[in-house]
Design a protein that fits this description.
It is built from 18 helices and 18 strands. It has helices at residues 17-25, 27-35, 43-56, 117-132, 157-176, 195-198, 200-212, 216-223, 288-296, 322-332, 335-360, 366-380, 385-400, 427-450, 468-474, 478-491, 511-526, 540-556, and strands spanning 15-16, 69-79, 84-94, 97-104, 139-144, 149-154, 240-245, 250-254, 257-262, 265-271, 275-281, 285-286, 301-304, 310-314, 500-503, 506-509, 528-530, 537-539. It starts with 14 loop residues before the first strand and ends in a 12-residue tail after the last helix. The protein folds into 4 domains: 15-176, Alpha-Beta Complex (Lambda Exonuclease, Chain A), CATH 3.90.320; 187-228, no CATH class; 240-314, Ribosomal Protein L15, Chain: K, domain 2, CATH 3.100.10; 322-556, Up-down Bundle (Four Helix Bundle (Hemerythrin (Met), subunit A)). It is α/β, with parallel strands linked by helices. Helix 1 (17-25) runs antiparallel to helix 4 (117-132) and helix 14 crosses helix 17 (511-526). The strands form 5 sheets. Strands 1, 2, 3, 4, 5 and 6 form a 6-stranded mixed beta sheet that branches. It has a 4-stranded mixed beta sheet with strand order 7-11-13-14. The protein has a 4-stranded mixed beta sheet with strand order 10-9-8-12.
């Protein structure tokens, strides 16, 4: 059946029966998915959709005759009186008496009730909608695909009351604007596709540390809380960016692949399902079918100038988490709140710069390292954004005064005198600027995926065309990702003088040089490190998302302080 609701009926306030299932299973999961509009696939969700494909392939219609046998698939119904909307996988019955059948991908549980409460509540919600639409419905059936077993569920008064109670609670939680707390070390989290969005163990640990007002090491000594953090999200992201550099190249879609063509013929290809973003440099074109396919899959298409300046992004739909953006605006317009986050970001940046010097510059003066340690502490205690800017500037001056000592020189004799840009006047600065541009792009995309407005900053002030929040998030990663990549490329001899060209008053990378820099950057992003707080392995690419989501948890009020990422 296509629909049973009147054409002018507003179903926006009706709760899907599936969401009652989610709420009974985990209130936080339901809130993230329904209220904030977040979703992520896992093996289980993909398999679940596969199992439903045959069911949904032929939408059913209810019979028009009163006593006709009913056997209808994928029936959509609404119940404004009970406040529920549902899609019933299979509806069977005779005349006015019907039984909803709900398909479940797994095996039937070995419990007395035959099915877990969330599944029973979902069936009951469907039954309530059917009753409102004039049917008699006293039971439902959960069909477990893997075990090929039907489990009858009686829609008795106790289950009806429990369903109505959960419905009322869900509405109250949604109206409150407060996300339910994460589950405490629950086994449910392991198979949850939203674990990387929820960050249950991470949030619980940080809240515990804040409540006890203990430093990380003290917290471990006090109870070993750090061991409670399970790696619920993959260490690496299977999807990777695709970069297209070359004037006159065209990106086309063919089946499940993206093909890159030059005037001479096909250059390369990439599977769409393995593509996290498509980055186009200069005069690269993309066909409409390729653009539409990427928009439908939520894959951003990012445009750069020929020189590597970030120009813009094309994305199918904006993120549904309006709640987060409203709170972001509140933070951005509050000097006190924004300063508290900015202090953590800048202190983290200074600490990471100091670590890079300690690891790669054996001759770094102790006085300079001591100064940077002091500046990191001063950043944590900064009384205003103006003073924080001054502290950051002093730390940058100290850091770049030793940057030349990180470069081994070699046969090419690359050197660094000072940081310059717009345009960069030497190869080292050209590479640094190019890498910063890529990093800002990655953070821009990550922030969009989390639900932020990347243009509304906490530390950097909004300015036309400037992704201020992406620049904020970049601070702690500049030395860890961009600067480290540049040093590696030069010291390993991967870049030579032929990879650079003079352009006007500055120095620019050649197309071949850009490919080398992008390759070095991607290697760095795939590098796995041990998180200093959570103690699990995570790639730098995944780490960008973790930090962005922790920022969201600060803004939502779940944790008090932003935990900047600092290597040891």
């Amino acid at each position: 059946m296509e629909t049973s609701k009147p054409q002018d009926e507003d179903v926006s306030d009706l709760i899907p029966a599936r969401m009652l299932n989610e709420f009974a299973y985990c209130p936080r999961l339901c809130y993230i998915e329904w209220v904030q509009g977040e979703f992520a696939d896992s093996v289980d969700t993909v398999d679940g959709r596969f199992q439903h494909r045959r069911v949904d392939a032929r939408p059913g219609k209810l019979p028009e005759e009163e006593y006709e046998t009913i056997h209808a698939r994928s029936v959509h119904l609404t119940g404004p009186g009970v406040g529920i909307t549902c899609r019933i996988d299979l509806l069977e019955g005779e005349g006015n008496r019907v039984i909803p059948v709900d398909y479940k991908r797994g095996e039937a549980p070995d419990i007395s009730e035959g099915a877990y409460e969330p599944d029973r509540v979902q069936l009951c919600a469907q039954g309530l909608v059917l009753r409102e639409n004039g049917f008699e419905c006293d039971e439902g059936v959960a069909y477990f695909v893997r075990s090929k077993k039907k489990v009858a569920v009686s829609l008795d008064e106790a289950l009806v009351q429990r369903t109505k109670e959960l419905l009322s609670n869900l509405r109250a939680v949604a109206a409150s604007g407060e996300m339910p707390p994460p589950l405490d070390y629950s086994p449910k989290c392991f198979r949850c596709s939203l674990a990387g969005i929820c960050l249950p163990d991470e949030v619980n640990l940080l809240r515990e540390m804040e409540a006890e007002e203990l430093e990380e090491d003290e917290a471990v000594q006090a109870g070993g809380t750090r061991e409670k953090v399970r790696r619920l999200l993959p260490a690496r992201d299977d999807q990777i960016p695709v970069y297209v550099v070359g004037q006159g190249n065209t990106v086309r879609k063919k089946g499940e692949r993206l093909e890159i063509w030059s005037r001479e013929g096909k250059v390369s290809e990439a599977r769409i399902m393995e593509t996290s973003q498509l980055c186009l440099y200069g005069g690269v074109e993309i066909t409409t079918p390729a653009m539409v396919e990427l928009m439908q899959r939520g894959v951003p298409v990012i445009h750069y100038t020929h020189g590597g300046w970030f120009q813009g992004i094309c994305l199918g739909m904006t993120h549904k988490n309006v709640e987060l953006r409203m709170r972001q605006f509140q933070y951005a317009t509050s000097p006190r709140r924004s300063l508290a986050i900015a202090r953590g970001m800048i202190s983290g940046k200074i600490k990471n710069c100091r670590t890079l010097l300690r690891r790669n510059d054996p001759g770094a003066p102790r006085e300079l390292l001591a100064l940077m340690a002091k500046l990191a502490k001063d950043a944590e205690d900064a009384s205003s954004s103006e003073s924080l800017l001054g502290i950051e500037g002093a730390a940058a001056e100290a850091y770049f005064s030793r940057f030349d000592h990180l470069l081994k020189g070699g046969a090419e004799g690359f050197s660094f005198e000072n940081r310059n840009k717009r345009p960069p006047k030497d190869p080292v600065n050209a590479v640094l600027s190019y890498l910063y541009g890529i990093l800002v792009k990655d953070l821009f995309v990550t922030l969009l995926a989390v639900g932020f407005d990347p243009y509304l900053g906490i530390y950097h002030r909004p300015r036309y065309g400037r992704p201020a929040l992406a620049l904020d998030m970049m601070e702690e990663f500049r030395p860890l990702v961009a600067d480290s990549t540049a040093v590696t490329l030069f010291n390993n001899g991967e870049l030579s003088k032929k990879d650079f060209i003079r352009a006007g008053f500055g120095i620019s990378l050649t197309p071949e040089g850009k490919k080398k820099v992008v390759g070095g950057y991607e290697r760095r992003m795939e590098t796995e490190i041990t998180h200093p707080i959570f103690r699990y392995s995570v790639s730098y690419r995944r780490l960008l998302e973790v930090q962005a989501r922790l920022l969201a948890r600060v803004i939502s009020g779940e944790i008090r302080e932003y935990p900047a990422f600092c290597t040891r």
